Amino acid sequence: MELTRKNWSKKDINTFNLYLESLKNENKIEWTKRIVNTNMKVLAIKTPILKKIANEIYKGNYIEFLSFMPLDYYESTIIIANIINKIKNNKKYYLDIYSRKIDNWASCDVLNFNNVNKEEYYNISLEYIKSKETFVRRIGIKILFSFVKDCNYTDKIFAILDKLYNENEYYVNMIMAWLLCELFIYQREKTLNYLKDNKLNSFVINKTLSKCRDSYRINNEDKQLLLNYKR
Predict the structure, then answer these.
(1) FRET label pair with 216: which of 24, 110, 132, 182, CA 20 to 30 Å apart?
(2) pTM of the model
(3) Do 205 and 173 meet the contact criterion of CB atoms below 8 Å apart?
């Protein structure tokens, strides 16, 4: 199928969906569905193929393609997320639509926010974290990964996490732990001080320690030290 198009119609979207169907891997569908934990239809198309499809669409009239926001399959979310990652202007418009239509962690985590305006996306993160929808909140936390190397945002991130002490959704708590692990890697002293005095629930703290202890980027001495913070 020609993916680098000047125009997209509803008929073209239907053809696109048939094209995706032709690429499905029957042997991996149930495994993928179980790992991703999605209610969306799964085709189990390999990630490099999905990225290539996204790249080809982006070379053409991707705006018209996104106007249909064709999220008929889990794989469609990965394609669209990869297109959104490339958008420089009006990214939030598409992110707002996308974030409210997904139902799984992988469709969140494929998003990246490299080279965005930090203050703008810090505020978007604050907005998303207030959402009642689990995966919108998860994306709100995912945005903060772009700031882990910037010490000017470290205390702000800790303040955000402290406000989520009542969070009870597994997929939000898990990404909070992942974020804290990244902060420990890049902002070690500040993160140690935060681990001494924070409002987070025990699940997040213990998952953070587990992720740190599993990381090859953290030395054995620090892995042993972190056990002191286990709850």
Answers:
(1) 110
(2) 0.95
(3) no
